Structure formats: C-alpha cells, structure tokens
Amino acid sequence: MRISTRIVTLAAALAVLATAGGCARNRKKGDLPFVARDVDTLYSTAKDRLDRGQYTVAAQLFDEVERQHPYSVWARRAQLMGAFSYYLGRDYQKSIDSAQRFLSIHPGNKDAPYAYYLISLDYYEQITDVTRDQKITQEALDALGELSRRYPDTRYATDARLKIDLVRDHLAGKEMEIGRFYQRRAQWLAAVIRFRKVVDEYDTTSHVPEALERLTESYLALGVPEEAKKSAAVLGANYPGTKWYERAYALMQKHPV
After folding, report:
1. What is the pTM of this model?
2. 198: which residues sit within 8 A by CB, 6+ positions away?
3. For 4, 80, 214, 222, which has the most beta carbons within 10 A of its beta carbon?
C-alpha cells in the first residue's frame, strides 16, 4: 500500500512539473496544483494524508474529489471528509463552509446529522474565556440547539445537549462578569439588569446563587430593600447551604426591612 502511494505521488509530481509553467500564474499560494486523477486514486490519497495527520492537504484533496468527480458516489462522502479534515486542522470556517455546502446539496441525507454536529463542534471549539466577545459562543448554542431539535434521537443530539448546558453556563458567566464590572463602578441599575438576566434566562446554571446575592447587594444600594429581601428569600429557599446565602443573610440583618 505504501509503495503504491509513493508511485502515485511520483506520478503526480511529474505531471505537475510538466504543467507548472502554464498553471503557476493562476494558482493561489497554498492551493494544490491541478492534476487530473481517477476518483479512487484521489480519494485514497486524501485518506492516506488524513491518516498521516496532514489535515490541510487531506482536506484539499477531498475537495478535489468533489471538484473533479462531482457526480461520483465518492463526491458526497468527500464533502464530509473534507469538512472533518478542516476541523482536525482547526480551520473551523472552512469546515463550516464544507459541511453547510453538503447540507445544501444533500439536506435529507442519512449523514446530515453528522454534518450539523460537525458545524456545532466547529463553533464550540472556538469558544473563548468570558472576558471576550461571546458571538461565537452564541453561534455554538444556536448550532447545538438546531441539531438537538432536528435529530433529537441521535447520539449526536445526546452530546449536543451536554454541550448546551456548558455553553449556557459560559454565557451566564459572561453576564456575571459584566454585572460585577458595573457593581465595581457603582452602576447599580446596570448591574441589576445583568444579574436579573442570569436568574431569568440561565436559571439552571451554576451562576444563579451568586446572581441572587449580588441582586440583594444592588437592590440595597439602590434603596429598594423590599426587592433585596425577595432576592435573598429566593436564594435561601433554593440554595440555603451556599456561601452566597450566608452573605445575603448577613446583608439583610444589617439592613432589616
């Protein structure tokens, strides 16, 4: 198998040398040179590069399968393999583009759930810490949600639901970070809006107890102790053993309604 691959590679190299003068001006840097190859050779060469960890080259070769043999039975498979190769190479946007192209051409294909899953992973892998813009995080949540709605009984949806919980927790963490920022600057109303959003929209996340305690602080600072009492009461009813309830309780003892 290795000897035949070398022969294929040498033959391709000779063909490139023979045509380099005419094609070099039209190629972009990083593109593979166009070499007409039969579909079996092209696909097996791409798979070989993938197995060797040469993900970018593998992805480009899978793209060539689709480009040179668009009506073959291998073209459809090559689209997904190309998207997977780009994913492994961390070229997430190209992976998303390839998977979306597959879905636009084959929306009802049996591999459609995997294409949606791959798009979800592409966004999920790009999630950054809460101090940065969370646009990608929201896109990951949207993609995971679409997958779980469309194909709820697949193994991909099972994993998607787990990731949705993590993504929601991440988004709640971003709201908390902004709320604390406003608190440090005594912008109490702006802080309340952020903490309220965590309690109302991310009520199953790990950030709710802190959000309720900080709502208690912020309402007291705004001079509305009745609202502070409500937040502390909810905190005591649902998270009685947490440090956040202890803090809220201490605050309410200092500022009795």
Report:
1. 0.77
2. 172, 175, 176, 179, 205, 207, 208, 211
3. 214
